[in-house]
Specification:
By secondary structure, this protein is an alpha/beta fold. The protein has nine helices and six strands, in the order ααααβαβααβαββαβ.
């Protein structure tokens, strides 16, 4: 549902419009309004370029949302004096420039409506995803593993809802893991050593993040005891989260905890694993 083309057209259209505004304002008589328009559009354009170089785009519009808000605000206060300038006198250059400006304004307007419509339709699905997966993970850890050392690769909701001793094997909240990834030493053996050194009992992870066609960093010593799968996922890191016993002594407790908690899971969550056999 969240194709890349929607936000690309929206953002690049705003960037091109901003560039045209800067160029056109530079030939207008200088006053406070034109100087402000040039400054605002320069800030937006440079920020957008830096974001494209160093940042990310997409995934439910989460990364570039601030850029689109700033771009729309800057365009709305800058385009009026430019349009007035284009109407002052007619020439072939001004007619071409007017056509480009109106085309960009129309494109930005249409994609803004489309983006808003898709967001409005998809928001209930996205919040349901979070409730069925991330929220349930947090409740599970709060009930059975608060104060325990656990490994995660998506830490937000679990950290917010409970108080475990989290070891982030993805690296956002753990420097040891981050250094391994940055240095190209991110391997199953290294993760195994780190989790053992930190006395990790269980791991709740996305298998697809640790084992896929490009990499396999899943420690062989971990024992999978269960999975939860959600349908129609658009916001979570993956539709399936897996539960592993990291410490050999943690398997029976994890199986029993998952079995007890399974009664409270939303019915739409598809459960699988050895814990269902008990």
């Amino acid at each position: 549902m969240f194709g890349d083309n929607e936000w690309k057209l929206h953002l690049f259209g705003l960037m091109l419009l901003s560039l045209i505004i800067i160029l056109s304002q530079s030939v207008l008589p200088k006053n406070k309004l034109t100087k402000t328009a040039i400054l605002y559009n320069l800030v937006f354009l440079l920020t957008a370029i830096l974001h494209l170089i160093f940042g990310r785009l997409g995934w439910f519009y989460r990364y570039e949302a601030y850029l689109l808000v700033v771009g729309l605000a800057v365009a709305s206060i800058s385009v009026v004096p430019m349009i007035k300038y284009l109407y002052c006198e007619s020439s072939k250059t001004k007619l071409i420039l007017s056509g480009i400006v109106y085309f960009l304004l129309t494109a930005v307007f249409i994609t803004s409506i489309w983006r808003g419509l898709i967001s409005f339709i998809s928001a209930p699905i996205g919040t349901t995803n979070i409730y069925q997966q991330q929220y349930q993970m947090g409740l599970f850890v709060k009930k059975f593993y608060s104060g325990h050392a656990i490994a995660l690769n998506d830490i937000g909701a679990v950290d917010y809802l409970s108080e475990p001793r989290v070891f982030d094997i993805w690296g956002l909240a753990n420097m040891d893991t981050a250094k391994l990834r940055l240095r190209g030493h991110y391997t199953a053996a290294k993760i195994d050593v780190l989790t053992k050194n930190n006395d990790i009992e269980i791991a709740i992870v996305y298998d697809a993040w640790l084992r896929n066609k490009n990499t396999d960093v899943m420690p062989l010593s971990w024992t999978k005891v269960g999975q939860w799968k959600i349908l129609h996922n658009i916001t979570c890191g993956d539709d399936t989260v897996s539960f592993y016993a990291v410490a050999p002594t943690a398997k029976d407790d994890l199986i029993n905890s998952l079995r007890i908690f399974s009664r409270d899971l939303p019915s739409a969550v598809q459960q699988s694993g050895v814990y269902l056999q008990y």
